[in-house]
UniProtKB/TrEMBL annotation, chains A, B, C, D:
GO terms for molecular function: 5-dehydro-2-deoxygluconokinase activity; ATP binding. The keyword ATP-binding applies. Belongs to the carbohydrate kinase PfkB family. PANTHER family: 5-DEHYDRO-2-DEOXYGLUCONOKINASE, HEXOKINASE FAMILY MEMBER. InterPro entries: Carboh/pur_kinase_PfkB_CS, DKG_kinase_firmi, Myo_inos_IolC, Myo_inos_IolC-like_sf, PfkB_Carbo_kinase, PfkB_dom, Ribokinase-like. Pfam families: PfkB. This is 5-dehydro-2-deoxygluconokinase. The lineage of its organism: Bacteria, Bacillati, Bacillota, Bacilli, Bacillales. Transmembrane segments: none annotated. Its EC number is 2.7.1.92. GO terms for biological process: inositol catabolic process. It catalyses: 5-dehydro-2-deoxy-D-gluconate + ATP = 6-phospho-5-dehydro-2-deoxy-D-gluconate + ADP + H(+). HAMAP family: IolC.
Length: 335, 335, 335, 335
């Protein structure tokens, strides 16, 4: 195995980073100017993945910071109801607000997000608020790149990485680049690289890896070059996403894995990566092969993109298996 | 008359200040944590008043700044459709966002607002973006206190006051204190006082006037003391609101005016002040007495608080007159 | 008289604003790159003028804020030793530093200043730290334009102006424009104009008045237009400096006053304006004519520009009179 | 050898970080309040060490940023005259100023510094301004901890570390903790640790290492524990300074080295660490033993603390050898 998970831990999965609110357009297939009502969901990539893992039956926890307002309390209540341990979800006391993401769905393939990230509570998480004990009690720590976008959340995430290394907790880095908050592309590259050096599993798009290589020479944008660099540090698995052409999982033993994809009646593209990540990591924890884990992730993603929401649509294992079976029976076709 | 409006101007009313988005809870009479959907409206006190004036048949314009995003374009489109001149509504190019106000309606009398004011586009309006010509072409300029809450909007509003004085445009100051953006109570007092010194009509709650008097001695919180101070500057009318006990309009000639109130089936309290202001100023422009203008404002306010929205519920003159008549006929009772 | 000073006050002069340190090049007539040693003096225009007034025998006080460090303590000690009342010189507790001004004297006519104004203690003075009682006990309040350059010092200075108006204390505004700290020319114009509206005596260069008129039409840069504008507010005397061509004092009664100048062996130009101001204001307080006051100011300025320092070189009345007499005897010639 | 320097490089030493100005009290043995004149020197720990290395005959270069003013030009001229390559000393264009350090020498053992670090040019160095080629052409890169104190200098220094690793340039980290600019102790720990992980030689005081271990358990403050941790990363030599009790150099092979000390007629303590570092690194480059290198550093430090300045007093090899010989002959005694 490219990555070995420690045994005998209280939690199977803990994530650190963004907790925010999605405000999804109810009237879709039009510009947001013409959308009059929005539905509220818990959002943020690491929140979505954690909810996904919990739905898949995993024992999960979250390390993050919420605003001291109605939005923050809604997030806390939702996570709790999903069975996620929130002992390390702390409440900001400085007047920060909950990050927002208004979604615009002009068409299934033309989606965008209007972000509110100024003074966001999640970026106020400080190193002293990261529980070493919780990380030591988890088999896996997921770090989202957005947690690195500003101080003190940046230092909190870097400290979480050190705790994970110290206690042998497997680290997954989801680069999750968002062009907000970051001050410059050089800053983004600097901190994503620092986190990647300390990660066992790294997941990102080709464009995200390009950005991290801005001070290097990889003119052909070679996946193999990229993967080998991180295998030279701590990584065992590097997944590089190529959009419609699918994802490739590179493993330290030289492997290169692709999974088959499934048809879906796409409503929007948001949340595909998060549900894929949850499905894939669930597979690894289950001891499945890389291919089977990727396939499971792909099916989970199909379910989410066929739905109106992200977090709320995260499927159970039964739902994913059922989706795969229905695809195999030809009951689901792209639309 | 306590205030004389100049004649022969292209516009009857121009406002400067906040343009934002209200996201009103669809499921009401509960805490916002339990509200799942929100409806989008144009918001911000000066925007509401301008929409109200336009609905009442007045020729209006707006001086403000909007974000370069879907929310900003929605605001621009809405104002234009309402017949408001937007030649001086400029678009921010620095990445500012549209201010948001999520409303929470726990009960008709227990309402609150969750504000997003960080990096708000309206506060980026700069002095060079204020049209002297537009102010010179208007009979009245309304300045909202929130425009004074941060630079460069603060200097833009102060310059607008100078242009108004230079050209004899009547200035209305709506104090509209919001505890966001301001850095200290002393700062609030300083700039509200500077604006009040240059205003012909000043509208605020007793609490707002108290705040402006923090460096003075008015221990009895005397309305008369407050009004006289501003009559010593430029004001002709000072309206002091006492919540449920009603408003009193003080005039420079020593007058003290109260208007009768009307019953209403209250949904929420938001927007009462804005519709009152629109109705009252419409009355003054119509040459009505202070009492009749106040009465008209009160009825306009009743219509808005009986409705789900603020801007969208602003009534026409026919609707207000109809409301008063129905009250007189006993067809409307409080509820 | 264009300006009447109140009688029976404890202090004859109080200034508000900048207290800083001058570091004057010991090796002069060369670029600062080649200067190896510097001498420390108390500096800042209002500090210099106050020291000047004290040397001229006036009972003075200062309203300002100093850093909690050796530089701050040096300033406090120096003012105290000069007989200036420092009860309203407060000490910053936020880690601010003392503003610095390194002087470069390439030649008597080619002088420049390298300023350190980031996080300067004097700009941290807040409205609650301004003593109304002290202003009420003074015949005259001098406000320096640099006090308006940033918050909260800006609001503190504006409040001082209100206290002065309330208690009939004569206000002198020394525009003293410095292109540091200010965020934009529009901001500078806005606040200098607000302060000038409330001042009895306004002193500035033609360029400073031009800057304040950026939103007006005075295409000929007419001094008379400028002066009349402020006479329309509160001013009784407006002094406009035209560099080598001398200064003109305009008075509300239509007067236009120029004073003769004196020869001097110029070392540097720094401090000329401050010593002129001290001499002129001393003359007004003495009940002298405008001309005689200006002449006295000119002679005081000659003494300072013939010396290495500013504050330390401020003359006594005897020294100024002696200088004038020596000039009249032809003992001093330019050089 | 614990550390092997690459051969065949154009430069023997390149430093990245702080370039500033020391203003040293001329009148010493008194509080700074009583010091009236100051002498200007180039300062900043990495600048001092580089000047020291250059004086010791090493081919050196500097990576840094200077203000676009007289102070910046003085620094550039001084470095150039010392034979230091300044091709990577760039000039700020944002209005930053040169950092200042006023020294106060109350007694030889009671010295302090008054720092001006707001808006300092050296902290504006950005990653794109770091020459990979220059680092690739150097045998050794010295990083000062103060370069990590703020962005973008922080990212620039971290990138320099990556370039050094890529090209096999030996990295020396001088922790050089200064309680300015850093926002929190946690932030300091985070970035000093990240830099230490990538360094071959780490130099700091026991207190500095304590600070870096705030998230660890080293209750006995064990030097051995500290050193072993970094040997587990990349380090070959860890020097821990214990003030008067001397320094200990730990080496990866288990060695623990102390050097004898020399007497000195101490004027002040500033600059001791910088001259020690220059002397020690010169010894390592010369292929001397750790002990001999430490001894040479100690003697260099004695010369600097016996003098009024830091940078200007950095000795040549002849001067250091002469000092050691004079000590051995008993010609120098403590005073």
């Amino acid at each position: 195995m490219s990555v070995i998970f420690p045994e005998g831990r209280e939690f199977e999965f803990v994530a650190i980073g963004r907790l925010c609110i999605d405000l999804n357009a109810n009237e879709i297939n039009r510009p947001m100017e013409q959308t009059m009502t929005f539905t509220k969901y818990v959002g943020g990539s690491p929140a979505n993945i954690t909810i996904g893992m919990s739905r898949l039956g995993r024992k999960t926890a979250f390390i993050g910071k919420i605003a001291d307002d109605q939005m923050g309390r809604f997030i806390h209540g939702y996570l709790t109801r999903e069975g996620i341990d929130t002992r390390n979800v702390v409440t900001d006391k400085t007047g920060a607000v909950t990050g927002l993401a208004f979604t615009e769905i002009k068409s299934p393939t033309d989606c965008s997000i209007l972000m509110y990230r100024d003074n966001a509570a999640d970026l106020k998480l400080s190193p002293t608020e990261v529980s070493e004990e919780l990380i030591a009690s988890s088999r896996m720590l997921l770090v989202s790149g957005t947690a690195l976008a500003a101080s003190p959340s940046r230092e909190a995430a870097l400290l979480a990485l050190d705790y994970a290394r110290k206690h042998g907790t497997v680290v997954v880095l989801d680069i999750d680049y968002r062009p907000y908050t970051w001050k410059s592309p050089e800053e983004t590259a600097a901190y994503c690289n620092l986190a990647a050096e300390k990660s066992d599993i790294i997941v990102g798009t080709r464009e995200e890896f390009d950005q991290m290589e801005r001070f290097e020479r990889n003119p052909d944008r070679s996946d193999r070059y990229t993967a080998e660099k991180w295998f030279g540090c701590k990584a065992g698995i590097v997944i590089i996403k190529h959009g419609k052409e699918g994802s490739i999982a590179y493993t330290k033993d030289g492997g290169e894995h692709r999974a088959r994809s499934f048809p879906a009646k796409v409503v929007k593209t948001f949340g595909a990566g998060d549900s894929y990540a949850a499905g894939f990591l669930h597979g690894l924890l289950s001891g499945w092969t890389i291919e089977r884990s990727m396939e499971f992730g792909s099916a989970a993603a199909c379910i989410v993109i066929s739905s109106h929401s992200c977090s709320d649509a995260m499927p159970t294992e039964t739902q994913v298996k059922d989706y795969i079976e229905r695809c195999e029976r030809g009951e689901i076709t792209a639309g």
